[in-house]
Amino acid sequence: MQAVTAFSDPPTWVAEAVIYQIFPDRFRCSGRVEEQRHLALKPWGSDPTEQGFQGGDLYGVIDALDQLQEMGVTCVYLTPIFRSAVNHRYHTDDYFQVDPLLGGNTALDALVAALHERNMRLVLDGVFNHCGRGFWAFHHVVENGQASPYKDWFHIKRWPINPYPGSGESCGYDCWWSIPDLPKFNHSNPAVRDYLLAVARHWLERGIDGWRLDVADEVPKDFWVEFRHVVREVKSDAWIVGEIWGDARSWLQGEHFDGVMNYRIGWSSLGWAGGYALRQGYRNPNYPLNPLSTEELIHIWNTTTSWYRPQVNRGQMNLLDSHDVPRALHSLNGDLKAMRLALLLLFLQPGAPCIFYGTETGLAGGPSTERSSGPEPGCREAYPWDQHWSADLRSSIQQLAKLRSNYPNLHQTALAWRCFGSDGLVGEAEGLEVWINRSRVKSLALPEPQATAKVLWSNDQHNAPGSITMQSALMLATSPS
Predict the structure, then answer these.
(1) What is the pLDDT of residues 255-290, one digit of tens each?
(2) Residue 233 to residues 112, 207, 229, 230, 399, Cα–Cα distance (Å)
(3) Within a 10 A sphere around the Cβ of 220, how many other Cβ atoms?
């Protein structure tokens, strides 16, 4: 293993970032994309479980940047934007072309410029494990069979291949999770590596600030070593985030990624904030939604942060939810106070908090039917720009972003956590303490000398210095400033 050096550390800007994840087709339609004119798009707000496109585009993201920046967002993460025949665009057809429905390459250039003018950053989603059936090299193999010079770009098991197999039939090639429309790349082929590394280089040179890497643990590790060298060569402070859902120690030693999508922070925070009112029934071993005691929560957090160097903990992408899991407010059964507590827990972690688009509007997972709500694709609903919001959490997120900025001790190192009764959680940093009460039925009285300490922040105007109201929190100064 290579020695840990500055080259191996995550970029320092990540520790102070607040990220906003956008699913482009469902975020905002600008009305300025020529490609969309006269096309049969789905009406905005259609059931997210349906196929088709609702027309969100990158100019729409630009139109929303003032609102996002006011909320405290400093970095935008876009799920895939390259040409694809599917609305989530994880079925890539051409990695060098932004989808025309999103505005094409010109729209991305405009977005990069608009972000950088605001001192904001952009992270793109890289799907380098597999492509779509429409990817040009795979299409060449479909048309030419064994005569195609691109046949070794994929793992062909038998000829002829069958990209549209019937029930019980084999497609004849390796694909992601046995889904025939997602053929896997053959990373042992130098031409494949050169192509994918050229993609990484191209968009960094065009101005993006990092890559989030889809199903990163299913790609050979030595490819990511090369990838990291290319990325750092082009942009020394670019952020590399792998989609690893659990223990990522073998990926965060300085050779592969700067951080991962830290889902452990998400499901544990929801499990504690929601308690026994948490909606249960969702089954994902990597994202277990179960009620947690305070002791269990602290154990999970301490275990997670102990796995990594402090620099790595500051380079994590921490999140409550995403395009792949139920929305946090859905999991919390619509409890807005619990949602605010979960957001607070998220913002108190070392690393960058990531807000899933529409969280601030109270989105909770699609139409109000169990058939389409909750897990993906129900969580990928359209942003309610012209509709009534079920909640407005913008000020809460703005306050939390300011809290992190004003008190860097809260995120530069992991807070020391301890219990205060069954429903009280206390986080300590140098000169600061954060007291959190998740109880829905009783306030908590603070012990001395905390009861007389200076209150620096509170999420409830009724919090007195000596107590914490139900489902509330406050931050105290424990030493002179």
Answers:
(1) 999 999 999 999 999 999 999 999 988 989 999 999
(2) 20, 14, 6, 5, 37
(3) 12
User: Given CA atoms 323, 325, 328, 330 in this order, what sign does their dihedral have?
Assistant: positive
The CATH 3.20.20.80 domain(s) of the chain lie at: 6-129+185-412
Q: How far is CA 89 from CA 53, 93, 100, 369, 394, in A?
A: 11, 9, 12, 26, 28
Contact 57, 3 (CB under 8 A): no
Residue 351 identity (one-letter amino acid): G
Q: Write out pLDDT tens, residues 373-425.
A: 578 899 999 999 999 999 999 999 999 999 999 998 888 888 999 999 999 99
CATH class of 416-477: mainly beta
Q: State residue 184 phi and psi, 5-degree precision.
A: -80, 140
Q: Rounded distance, CA 256 to CA 219, Å?
A: 11
Alpha-carbon distance values, 300 to 293, 294, 418 (Å):
11, 10, 13
User: What burial class does residue 234 get, using C-beta atoms within 10 Å of its C-beta: 0-12 exposed, 13-18 middle, 19+ buried?
Assistant: middle
Task: List the catalytic residues.
Answer: 214, 243
Instruction: Identify any residues that bridge with 20 across adjacent strands, giving them in sequence order.
Output: 76, 355
CA distances from 309 to 227, 306, 329, 397 (A): 22, 8, 32, 28
pTM given for the model: 0.96
Q: Tell me the chain's radius of gyration from C-alpha atoms.
A: 23
* Crossing angle for the helix pair 221-234 and 190-205, to the nearest 10 degrees: 30
Please give the structure tokens belonging to residue 337: 């106070």
Place of tokens 């000596």: 466
Residues 480 and 469: beta-carbon distance below 8 Å? no
Main-chain dihedrals φ then ψ at residue 356, nearest 5 degrees = -75, 135
| CATH 2.60.40.1180 intervals, the chain | 416-477
Query: Fold for domain 6-129+185-412?
Result: TIM Barrel (3.20.20)
Q: Which token pair is 463?
A: 């919090």
Query: By C-alpha distance, which of 74, 90, 84, 35 is closest to 57?
Result: 35
Q: Tell me whether strands 352-356 and 317-319 are parallel, antiparallel or unpaired.
A: parallel
The H or E element that residue 139 is part of is helix 136-144
| Structure tokens belonging to residue 236 | 């020394």
